[in-house]
Amino acid sequence: MRIVIAPDSFKGTATAAEVATAVRAGWLTERPDDDVLAAPTADGGEGTIDAFAAAFPDAERVPVRVTGPAGDPVDAHWLRLPDGRAVVELAATSGLPLLAGDLRPETATSRGFGEAIAAALDAGATGLVLGIGGSASTDGGRPVLEALGLDVAGSDTAGLRPLPAGGVVVLTDVVSPLLGPTGAAAVFGPQKGLAADRVADAEARLTEWAGRFPSVDPATPGAGAAGGVGFGLLVWGATLVPGARAVAELLGLPGLLDGADVVVTGEGRFDAQSAAGKVPSVVLALRAERAPEARALLVAGEVDAPLDAFDAAASLVVLATQTTGEPDDALRDPLRFATIAGQRLARLVS
């Protein structure tokens, strides 16, 4: 049989490429004659660069030192694709994991992301693919634009670098507007440590910032992504797209699914939000389009939502509990249990 394994990263524990490789190894121990393809993917958040690197072996990781979310220098990298485009990941330059639990809701900055974009342009990038999931800040993307030449007054776009000839595609996994009860401050601010009594102040700052650019609609779906970095990139002239679907298309996943007998997808936590444009839902949709007869399987760190759309599923937490008696072993050694998950799922289709 032909098996396609297309998970997202298990954020904070394993990359999508690592998970796909582990599941594949487990599958092949049970069914060594199957044609098993590891096709890791992403939604624009943590692991986006790794997914592109796995799909394009000739891509080059280019190191860069930028301002981290706490204001200190951090070492990161961007990815030069064979066609000259650059992939830049906000999570790697300005993301929550870089704060190591020391949340800074009032002062965290997205500047390093803009510095990495500028570095890619300086190196001759012909186009940009920007993943903006996993941010630590709620700054409206102003520091990103300042790193790209915005006048310090914050409203003169004449100083901004021109877009590269190949354009700028922004991958986001949310459709939130910049402002309002479903916006960057109200919904995502508290997730970044913003106290309830400070949300109104953050909202006021974002409202003032948006007012400087009347030609850009802050209600645009995705403008509130990454604490408003989505809005900042709209000011620059970039195009926001649903991250998981766009990444799948860019990586050629639809074509890889042609002729598949089984499609395996996954993510760290499968819950009610997974149906809203996350990797598993997109892989399911592509499977329905390209391989409707293929069985759909899920591997997840935890499962907290109905599995009606899948023929079978494996939870790493459940496997760890069954194997060692310690559910936390799934976090400590996810690839061990991802391998077991691949083996168990392979048995189900025998």
How confident overall, as mean pLDDT?
95
Ends distance:
10 Å
The domain count comes to 2
CATH-derived topology of the largest domain:
Glycerate kinase, domain 2
Q: Stretches where pLDDT falls below 50 for ≥5 residues? A: none
Would you state the CATH class of the largest domain?
Alpha Beta
SSE order: EHEHEEEHHEHEHHHEHHEHEEHHH
- Helix content percent band: 25-40%
The CATH superfamily of the largest domain bears the name: Glycerate kinase, domain 2
Give a description of the structure.
- The mean pLDDT is 95.
- The protein has a six-stranded mixed beta sheet, with helices on both faces. It has a five-stranded parallel beta sheet with strand order 2-1-9-10-11, sandwiched between helices.
- By secondary structure, the chain is of the alpha/beta class.
- The chain has helices at 16-30, 48-55, 90-94, 111-122, 142-147, 184-188, 199-211, 229-236, 243-251, 253-257, 279-290, 316-324, 329-332, 334-349, and strands spanning 2-7, 35-38, 60-67, 73-80, 86-89, 128-131, 168-172, 239-242, 262-270, 295-303, 312-315.
- It has two domains: 2-40 and 256-349, Glycerate kinase, domain 1 (Rossmann fold, 3-Layer(aba) Sandwich), CATH 3.40.50.10350; 48-245, Glycerate kinase, domain 2 (Alpha-Beta Complex).
- Helices cover 36% and strands 19% of the residues.
